[in-house]
Amino acid sequence: MRLIAIDAAPAKVSLCLWQDRRILGDWESSRPHPGRVMEALIDLLHKAELEFCDLDAVAFGRGPGAFTGLRLAIALAQGIGLGGNLALVAISDLAALAWRAHRAHGWERIVAAMDARQGEIYWACYECSGQAPLLCGNERIDRIAEVVPAPGAWAGAGSGALLLNHAGLAFTAMDADLVPDASAVAWLGALELATGHVLRAEQACPVYLRDRVAEPRSRKRHKPPLN
Amino acid sequence: MHVLGIETSCDETGVALYQEGGGIVWEDLYSQVDLHRPYAGVVPELASRDHVRRLAPLLRGLLEQAPEPDVVAYTAGPGLIGALLVGAALAEGYGAARGIPTLGVNHLEAHLLAPLMTAEGPDFPFLGLLVSGGHTLIVGAYALGDYRVLGTTLDDAAGEAFDKSASLLGLDYPGGPALARLAASGRPGKFHLPRPLLGRPGYDFSFSGLKTALLYAARELEPEDESARADLAREFEEAVVEVLTVKAERALDQGGFSRLVVAGGVAANRRLHASIQDMARRRGVQAWFPSPGLCTDNGAMVAYAGWRRFRAGEWCGSGEVRARWPLGESRFTHGGGE
Fold it and tell me: What is the pTM of this model?
């Protein structure tokens, strides 16, 4: 099984070329530039002596995360999917973050949390004892002070874990520097692909969690008239 | 050769396929007007979100029913950066997977070239009057990629002034067409609004003062006086049309152009159309307007501009998008490894 994974939920964009549980090549950049990403992707394929037609799917980080990054990853995946007639696989960036924490530290009960700005975090609880993180409850966006994980001891992963820790939430262990990346998206994407959980390009959509981004005019206070 | 055009610079998601020698053979467009109506204006984040929802289904429809594209052109700017990025990323992904060239098109150039798409369209050189919700420009177009911006707006674009003034008159979004409809029943000469910068030399525009003058006049109206509201809308429309027409005439005169192209969303305004045609006839100049569907943002003009650029030897494919991309800086990247 061979796939390419794209993730841009954090402030960087990353790629991973994946085949049969191993990484054939990866790349990352802090610049969300579609042309450069595609050049890097083609370079990864060339180095592995592969073509787009040799791929089975395109996995992408579907969020939550930086809005522009999510759309970059998804639109690139949609374009590749339409152009290469490839299936798409959508992976939660919180699950990818939890999976990275599990792989790096061996933790099994993880609160994956990312700074969502405006005093809020994206977060979810995962149990990672099997091949993939198991979501406990829902992915949520909450004000930092309102985050209450399920009972029990949890390790914290991601920038949001540090914010929670500062707000008084105790973790058994913490890695605040971890971010989701394309290698985790590839790993989880391969599992999803194996179980047939695939999308057509037009079915792919981001999960923002923060859905209220503007106030309708009727709810705004009207500006006073001139003078 | 078939060129795919993708437009996502603001609040329209458009795809089209231009066939060399055959014109537009497929076109589809999704307008976000209903999405933005409750906000009385385009919300950039919502626009970006909707593009990523709409673009892939539109493109799937094209790919299933139209010939396969040989080149992908997409709007690379100017526009809303998040919205542009969606089109650029999908275009670059598609182009790479198909192994075909991609190129970023200047949105203003695409508008300007739209009337050239038909067999009866003008040749270079011509004077361009580009009037939309985001831009108001007078441009000398001497050859493909050889443009000189002669004048631009110092504040609001003409279409923006229409929309904001419509809002001040209590009209629904999008206000420009609603204001024009209201103005159609208004009587001329019942109000007097200023004609900004008309008496000054040069080709620049300013519409914010006109909008403020309308606000002051609107505050004096009786709330139920629909007739007076229509009269005020009529005066506003006439002021904008007069300024645009006189400045265009001045540029025709001083630049020695014999052809005039009017493009952009405001080009669909009937009073502007009549005023420009009248002026052009008087001067013995030929004026071209795009068909109504090509006045607003669309994929067809992007496909056509992309074809013109590609045939001239350009392919960019950098995937770069620019919120600001002046027409005069319209880049020209030749193929062959440059």
Answer: 0.94
